[in-house]
Every structure is written in structure tokens, then in C-alpha cells.
Amino acid sequence: MRIVLGVGGGIAAYKVASLLRLFTETGHDVTVIPTEAATRFVGVATWEALSGNPVTNSVFDDVDQVKHVRLGHEADLIVVAPATADLLARAATGQANDLLTNTLLMARGPVLFAPAMHTEMWQHAATQANVETLRSRGVAVLEPASGRLTGSDSGPGRLPEPEAIFEAAMALAHGLQVDAPLSGRTVTISAGGTREPLDPVRFLGNRSSGKQGVALAAAARDAGATVRLVAAHMEVPAPAGVELIAVETALQLREVMLAAAAGSDVVIMAAAVADFRPAEVSGSKIKKRDDTADPVITLVRNPDILQELVEVRDAAGSSQLVVGFAAETGDEQGDVLSYAEAKLKRKGCDLLVVNHVGADKVFGQDNNSVVILSRAGSEPQSASGSKQDVAAIVIDRVGSELSRVFPRT
Ligand code: CTP
User: Fold this and answer.
1) Is 206 a catalytic residue?
2) What is the tens place of the pLDDT at every residue in 136-170?
3) 271 Cβ inside 6 Å of ligand 1
4) Which residue in 57, 102, 130, 206 is the catalytic one?
5) What is the mean pLDDT of each run of 10 residues along the chain (409 residues)?
6) What is the distance, to the nearest Å, from the Cα of residue 150 to the centroid of all Cα atoms in its chain?
7) From the DSSP assignment, how many helices (H) and strands (E) are in the chain?
8) Domains of the chain, CATH where assigned
9) Which of 76, 201, 241, 299 could be stapled to 276 by a disulfide with Cβ–Cβ 3.0 to 4.6 Å?
10) 325 pocket-lining for ligand 1 (C-beta < 6 Å)
11) Which ligand 1 atom minimizes the distance to the CA of 190?
12) CB of 253 closer than 6 A to ligand 1?
């Protein structure tokens, strides 16, 4: 492929040398166009040596070849990294004040921007509006990575790793979408009902079928996320394209969720976790003995996994989004929503998806009707339809909550 690699004036320009090598080593012909500011970070000689092609940022070099017309027209792919706030603004407003912006205006093939800047600049409404404009025109704009930035600050704004940009560029060149609402995000979802053993053949279980969790996993996958599904007992198969980790008990689920959550942008607890487990698990089958009194099962509390996930998240100061589900029934003391509001406060999660349950409602059924409550206090959002419809609405809401934390629109 003929690739134009536009380089913006940011400290991350040095990392783009590795990206250039990934392109050239896989046989692509790369023309580098740095901005004027970019050459202050990495010199023209470096780009020429690594690309094997002449490098300029002036429209007035080789005027006879009308370089900006040729480069823009002939490029099979244009990748801009790091895309600074200034470069995004110039591209979004169609400016043509250097060779790179001229080339972008001439582009006929796919264009990928990999932004890098300070968090405040990325989150600024002006930058976000520019990103939105570019995306609306079919330009792919990757989400910046989160982590340590140039100074002592940290947050979203780091240039994605060269390998990630390379993968995205290749996917884009093959017509795939690389900036879907959750692309680049990892979502861990628990689903199904835990089973708490009494003895080798008996357990205490619940009616959860896993359908809602599975639908959520599929919706998150379709929104571009990398999905881990931590599955307790389910009556439906896991969707393709997600990593499946099977568990049985609440304690196993807790262990796996805590480990999986560590690397996740979003954690969704859709599993029906048993609140109690038998205090003792018999190693052999409990016998029916006619000569003894009726057996009594003593239960002990299981840990509240959702609450613990929130505590771990808060202790780490991370901006991970934690979503809980609440199975509620009303009674004489309160209605479903008032119980759910109290549960949201108690658990401290960001979103609580509330189901009204009963023996004939929700569990195992194909349809669902929920209300989404948010810790930030926005109006309760109702969603109903098939479990797939509800999952799509929940995942959509997750996407918009993430953009609030790490704005992207
Ligand atoms: N949950 C959890 N660990 C538990 C129990 C529940 O992580 N031991 C999670 C569920 O996955 C769900 C949320 O907490 O996301 C609410 O579950 P629910 O059964 O409605 O609430 P409980 O905490 O069990 O509260 P109660 O039984 O008092 O209604």
C-alpha cells in the first residue's frame, strides 16, 4: 500500500518512528509528512532514513510535481499520529496551510487520526467538536490511551501504542470500523446464576438463565469492545467473539471478577449472585436417614462482589465504569424504585439497571423491562423489549457515560 504518515507536533512524535517501521517492515511504501512543529521533535533526516523517501512539509518544494495533489490522490491510506489538538482543528475546519493539511483535503482513501495531547485539551469541547466533525465525515479518530502523560499528569491523552495504531490502520484499510463507540475498551461482564454446593450432587441455585448477560456481551462486542464474559450457570451459549471464563460459586466469581476488572474500562455485574452459601459443604452425598431429625442447612453470607469492585476501583482512583443490576420486588414498605435507589447508594456503582422480578417475570424470559438509574443523578431511563434490545440500550448508555468521563463527542 501507499501510505502517507502525517506527523503532528507533539512529544509522542518519537513513538511514530516505531509505527513507521511497522509499516515499512510489512512492505508498505510510506511517505512521511511532518508538520513544521513535528520537525522540532523529530528531524526530517530521521523520517527520510526510516522511510527511504524524501520528506518535506512545504507545498513549495517540488512544485512541478504538485506534491500535495499527488500524495493525497495516490495514498491508499493516510495515518496521522500524533494528531494534536491543533491538527484536529485544522483538519476539521478544512484548512490547507501546510503540506499535510493540503494532502488531507486531497485524500480519497481512508484516513486515521491517532490523537495525543493533555487530558484537558482532549476533553475540551472544541477538540471534541472537531473529533465529532471528522468522524461524521467518515474519518476514523482513535480514542487516546489513558495513562501517564508528558508532565506529572495522567489520564486519557496518550498516543495509543504503535502496534495498536498499526492494527487499526490495517483494519481500516480493509474496510473495518475502528472507532466504534467501545473500540479500544475492555468490558468485563458477569452473567448467569451462581450455584452454591451442599454436597457433590446438590446445590442452592437461582432462576437466572444468563440471557441478559449474554445479550450484553454480544452488544458490547458489536460496539467494538474487547469482552470478557465471566459465566456462572447459564442456559444459553456464550456469544462468539468474547473471552469466556466459567465459574460456579459466588466465591469463584468474586475471585475472577476482581482479577478481570483490574484491566477493564467497564465492569457489568449482570450475574445473579447467591447472597448466602451453605456454611458447610459435605464431601460426600448427604444421606436421607429415617432415624434422624430433619436436616437444617446453615447459611453464611457471600461477599458482595459489586460493592467490593466499587471499593477497589475507588481505592485505585480509577475512572472505570461499574454497572450493577438489581432484581427487585416491591412490598408494603416500599416500591421497586425506592428500593433500587437505596441499593444504588449502598453499592456505589455508576449505573444500576433495575429489573422488577417475580416468579414469572424476567428470569428465563426473552423480554425484559428495566429502569437505568445513575449515581450522577440523571433522570431514570426506561428500556424495554427483548433482552437484546435492552442490552443495546444499556451498552449505548455505557458508551455515553464513558464519553462523560473520557468525552469523545
Ligand atoms: N451482587 C454481587 N454480590 C452479591 C450479591 C449481588 O455482586 N453477593 C450484585 C449483582 O450481580 C447485581 C447487584 O449486586 O449487580 C444487585 O443484586 P441484587 O440481588 O438485586 O441485590 P442484593 O445485594 O442481593 O440485595 P437484596 O438481596 O437485599 O435485594
Assistant:
1) yes
2) 999 999 988 877 777 777 778 899 999 999 999 99
3) yes
4) 206
5) 97 97 98 97 97 91 73 95 98 96 96 95 95 95 81 80 94 88 91 98 95 97 94 98 98 98 96 97 89 89 98 94 92 90 95 79 72 92 92 93 59
6) 24
7) 14, 19
8) 2-173 (3.40.50.1950), 186-405 (3.40.50.10300)
9) 299
10) yes
11) 11
12) no
Q: Could you tell me how many residues make up the chain?
A: 409
Non-local CB neighbours of 7 within 8 Å, separated by 6+ positions: 13, 16, 32, 33, 34, 35, 38, 42, 47, 80, 81, 82
**Ligand 1 centre distance from Cα of residue 386 (Å):** 23
Answer whether 306 contacts ligand 1 (Cβ < 6 A).
Answer: yes
Burial class (CB in 10 A: 0-12, 13-18, 19+), 305: buried
Which ligand 1 atom is nearest residue 250's CA?
8
Asked whether 189 lines ligand 1 (CB < 6 A), one says no
| 24-33 b/e (C-beta count within 10 Å ≥ 16 → b) | beeebebbbb
Where does residue 337 rank: exposed (0-12), middle (13-18), buried (19+ CB within 10 A)? middle
In this structure, what C-alpha cell is assigned to residue 356? Answer: 422488577
